[in-house]
Structure formats: C-alpha cells, structure tokens
Amino acid sequence: MVKVQLQEGAWRRRLLGTVTSSAAFSLILQRPQEVSESMAAMLLVAGISVGVYVLVYYNFIRGKQCKSDTSLKGKTVIVTGGNTGIGKMTALDMAKRGARVILACRVQETAEAAAYDIRRISGNNEVLFMKLDLASLESVRAFCKNFLSSEPRLDILINNAGIEGTGKTKDGFNLMFGVNHLGHFLLTNLLVDRLKQCSPSRIVIVASEAYRKGKIDFKNLNPPADTWKQILLSYCDSKLANILFARVLSNMLQGTGVTCYAIHPGVVRTNLGRNFPVWLQVVLFPLAWLLIRTPTDGAQTSIYCAVQEGIEMYCGRYFSNCTVTEVKPHARDDAVAKKLWEVSEELTGFSAK
After folding, report:
1. 211 flagged as catalytic
2. CA 205 – CA 79 distance, rounded (Å)
3. Nearest Cα to 77, choosing from 4, 38, 128, 123?
4. Of 235, 261, 304, 318, which residue is the catalytic one?
5. Which of the four, 105, 183, 291, 347, has the lowest number of CB atoms within 10 Å?
6. Transmembrane segments in this chain: where (predicted)?
7. What is the domain partition of the chain in residue ranges?
C-alpha cells in the first residue's frame, strides 16, 4: 500500500510539473511579445546593475594600483604571512619581479602550497618557506638565526602577518599586541643589520585605519580580549603600535640607506576574521565579495612602498591607497612612540643600543 501511494504521489508530481511546464510554454506561444519584453527588462536591469557595480568597484573600492616596473632580480624579500591573502599576492608580485622570496609563516602546509602556487604562476623557482610563529619570541629568534645563516641578502622586509582574535601568545601577551606588534618589533630589529648591509633597502609595516580607535595604555598592555568589542579594540591598539613603531624606527634608520613605511591596505577579503563566529562569517561573506577589495588590490600599497622609486623622503610615514597620508595626532605622539619602543625592548628582551 505504501509503495502504491508513493508511486501515485510521484505520478501526481510529474503530472503537475508537466501541466505547469505546458502552461508556461502556452503563455510564451500566446503572448510572446509580453514575455520577451519582460525578459528584456530583466536583462536590462541586470546589465545596468552589473555595470554600476563595476564602475563603483573600479573607481571607489578597488583603489590605486602600483604601476612601478622596478625589477627585483638579485634581491631577497621576506613576507611574513605570505601564505594567504594580501601577503600571498604581495609575495607573488615580488616573485614576478624576479626576487628571491621567503614566505615566513606559521603553518607549513599552507605555506608550502602557497610557495608552489607562486612558483607556478610567476615562473620564478626562488620562492621558499621558512618557519616563523610570531606568537612565540623563541620562534622569531630561531627564524632570524636560520635566515641569517643561510641567506646572504635581505633587501625588503614586509611585515604583513596579522591576527584578530582571542587568546595569548606563548609568552603570555595579548595575542594581537604580541603577534601584530611585538613579534614584528623583534623580527625587524634582529634583521635590520642585514638590511643595512644590503642598502638601499626597505621595511614595509602593514598597519590599518583601525589605528584611529586605538590607544596605548602602558598600565595595561595585555587587556582581556574575551568579547568581540575587546577583540576589536585590541586590534586597533596593535595597529596604532605599528604606526608608532615605524615612526621611531625611521629616526633610528637615518643615514643607513634603509627606509620604512607603515601602510593601510584597505578593507580586504582576507583570512583575518578566521576566528570570528561562524554565524558572523556567514553574514559578512556576501558583503565581503561585493563591497571589499580583493587581496590583489589590497596588496597594492604594500607593493608600492616596497618598490616605488622616489619615496625615500617619506621614511616613517603612513601610506594609504599608494599615497602618503597624514595620521591623527595620537599616531604622531613622539613621547608615546619612544616609550612604546622602550617597553617593547623590555618585553622582547632586545636592546638596540
């Protein structure tokens, strides 16, 4: 009996589908002009929508493109976090220019896959992975020891890696302050002598417009990051630290032939929000694909500051959209910047003196 009912139900559905299809077909035959006009209107609206989106994206979202054709043959570049997103696209550009590219990453599997992709696309076989976990000062030191003993040159250091999430580093620091600032602070200082030896050379520090909401509270450099509000504020603090770091670093680099720049990549589709709740990722995904820059477009300012000729006079400055940009007063506070440097030396166990 059940089998008969199922068969009968299936037969009824097929009959209904046939009737519906026949009715639609009959409508097209009887009133083809109305149907064609409706379809034409829908296609017109769709075409206009796509056209408007393309215009908006290329004129307002995409941002400026680095047009420099500088060759990097014979040069060596380190890109932290070069396995995904902006970092991967930056590394790809460096490889296309002929550089030897080191992907300094935490996860070997994704980094090796990225290196393979970059070698295949660029035709440059000098792209390799070296282990670096910025959440561990011990790992930073091990990376630098390995690099300095195996690589004779360093011409461009791109401090690209960043994280936004909860937790602590292996040394007990707030995860974002530890990875986004302290890890790169130690890395840069351990490698700066090699950069000086290979000058003219450059350091690019990927910051963010999020610095606007940041503050440096020396009484609490390890704030809790348990709620999403706390996480976002800690991220803003770390990006402010990036800009202040570049400011002091530029003064220490005067006369060495090494220049440094802090940059804002724009709002980009990256893995930065990989620690967001699943529901938030689902909500943001459509917006990310429609209204946010691609990693290739987001990499342009990093690339610009790495290779563009004639910007040496802007050492220590902040770039956005391939253009030098003035920062808010709290990101120009030399007293705070100097104290942050001193505290960072103490926390990382490094002294530039």
Report:
1. no
2. 10
3. 128
4. 235
5. 291
6. 40-60
7. 66-348
> How far is the C-alpha of 287 from the C-alpha of 53, rounded, in Å?
13
Dmax of the chain from CA atoms?
92
Angle, nearest 10°, between helix axes 300-307 and 85-96? Answer: 40
DSSP letter assigned to residue 80: E
Closest CA to 158 of 80, 263, 240, 261: 80
Tens of pLDDT along the chain (353 residues) come to: 444 444 444 444 443 344 344 444 454 445 555 546 666 566 655 555 445 444 544 444 557 899 999 999 999 999 999 999 999 999 999 999 999 999 999 999 999 999 999 999 999 999 999 999 999 999 999 999 999 999 999 999 999 999 988 899 999 999 999 999 999 999 999 999 999 999 999 999 999 999 999 999 999 998 888 888 899 999 999 999 999 999 999 999 999 999 999 999 987 555 545 555 565 555 555 555 556 778 999 999 999 999 999 999 999 999 999 999 999 999 999 999 999 999 999 999 987 65
Q: Which residue has the tokens 């989106």?
A: 53
Closest CA to 201 of 285, 95, 312: 312
pTM: 0.80
If we measure between CA atoms, which residue out of 348, 350, 353 comes closest to residue 136?
348
Distance CA 173, CA 170 (A): 8
Which overall architecture, per CATH, does domain 66-348 show? 3-Layer(aba) Sandwich (3.40)
